[in-house]
Amino acid sequence: MDVGAYLSRIGYQGPTEPTLETLRGLHRCHLFSVPFESLSVHCGEPITLALPLLYDKIVRRRRGGFCYENNGLFLWLLRALGFCAVGLAGRVRNRFTGRLGPPRDHLVLLPQEGGTFRLGLAGGVWALERLWAPGEEGQLLYTFTLEERELGDFAAMCRYHQQAPSSIFACKSFCSLPQPGGGRLTYMGWRLLATQGGVRTETPLQPHEIPPLLQRAFGAQLSGTLVPKDQDIQPPPEGEEMGQLPPTD
């Protein structure tokens, strides 16, 4: 695991001292170069939360992943550069079901670039909201506490997200990257979705078109055969929504 190769992978060429300027630069480069994706779940690639495996996937094979992978490896990079960074456990509000996921549903480092956000605290639990317009009510993104977590603490939820019917990663094959200047490009199921300047376009895809598209648009070279999927996401069982860890067997 080499810091220089990691910085080259994300296209970062600035200073590496642990300063706010460096953090902003690293964060932006990582966001625009490492896709948020569920492709491993749908092409026979089991996900194991071991840093050397995440490094091989994201740096050497130039892939992306979900939060435990992308944020977990980015946390390693920040620490290697001297930042006092910690990982926190969050619960994501699912935009399809409108409900919060189970505990350790998300590995939290920092809010993403590209909007205005608000943090609130109640009963020891922080809530992150996105503000779309001045004076409007915020949209809840996720909640988290300040109890420090290590990558291994998310192993059970990593397995859960590869198989649960209430997980977007198990129900939908997707790969997504924000675009410079605003907008986002997303592959999902049998569609390519693009937003730019408030305009959304949707292009249907044939199965044989998907692998070359992933390579061309996202730099994602798959080692297995992708099985596209775009199923409806089921609300989590009542116990999971109330904060109990789900079964993973």
Please, could you describe this protein's structure?
The chain is built from 8 helices and 10 strands. Helix 3 (51-60) packs across helix 4 (67-80). With 249 residues, it is of the alpha+beta class. The mean pLDDT is 90. It is globular. It is an enzyme of class 2 (transferase). GO terms for molecular function: arylamine N-acetyltransferase activity. Keywords: Acyltransferase, Transferase.
Q: Main sheet?
A: 5 strands, antiparallel
How many separate helices?
A: 8
**Which structural category fits the helices and strands?**
alpha+beta
Number of strands: 10
Shape: globular
- Tell me the series of helices and strands, N- to C-terminal: HHEHHEEEEEHHEEEEHH
Poorly predicted runs of 5 or more residues: none
Which range does the strand content fall in?
15-25%
What order do the strands of the largest sheet run in, or round the barrel if closed? 1-7-8-9-10
The Cα radius of gyration reads 18 Å
Give the termini distance in whole angstroms.
32 Å
Helix content: 25-40%
- What is the mean pLDDT? 90
Organism: Mauremys mutica (yellowpond turtle)
GO molecular function: arylamine N-acetyltransferase activity
Protein name: arylamine N-acetyltransferase
Family: Belongs to the arylamine N-acetyltransferase family.
Keywords:
EC 2.3.1.5, 28% helix, 249 residues, acyltransferase, alpha+beta, globular, Arylamine_NAT_domain_sf, 8 helices, five-stranded antiparallel beta sheet, arylamine N-acetyltransferase
